[in-house]
Write a structure and sequence with these properties.
Strand order of the largest sheet: 1-2-3-4
Distance between the termini: 46 Å
Radius of gyration: 28 Å
Largest sheet: 4 strands, antiparallel
Number of domains: 2
Structural class: alpha+beta
Number of helices: 4
């Protein structure tokens, strides 16, 4: 990664260092280069803003906690809550059995085995990914018709 950034910087600075000298009186009017220090600083500042935004978003996602994904198989995470910076309590289903599990760094413990099943509404079908996909399909069909 550092090599790519170094090569990019070298290419941009070489253009600045080896630019043609200003036009003399016999060559005509003074022509300025479209690639100057100002445009380079403008681009570098924009790049830093984008990289900073990516880092802030990554930090926020990690700070918010677990982002559930699509899981297939016998084990499913039905829900969870963050108790601290690294501690969580998770409701999970293994086969037909539901467990409440405590998760901490280097430690996972079963807190409770539920006798009665807890029903959890699936947010992806209510107002999440499913409805967005359906709305997008409807919008695309409307434009094509």
């Amino acid at each position: 990664m550092y090599r790519v950034l170094w090569l990019l910087g070298l290419c941009l600075f070489s253009k600045l260092l080896y630019a043609e000298p200003a036009a003399t009186a016999d060559k005509g009017p003074l022509v300025t280069s479209p690639i100057g220090v100002g445009s380079f600083l403008h681009m570098a500042f924009g790049l830093l803003i984008v990289i900073g935004a990516i880092l802030v978003m990554t930090w926020l996602i990690r700070r918010m906690g677990y982002v559930p994904g699509r899981v297939t198989g016998a084990m499913k995470i039905l829900g969870g809550i963050s108790l601290g910076q690294r501690e969580r309590v998770v409701l999970m289903q293994v086969g037909e059995q539901q467990l409440v599990v405590g998760i901490a760094p280097g430690n996972i413990r079963t807190l409770l085995v539920l006798d009665k099943h807890v029903t959890v509404q699936d947010s992806s079908t209510d107002a999440g990914e499913g409805s967005f996909a359906q709305k997008l399909q409807a919008m695309l069909k409307g434009r094509q018709a």
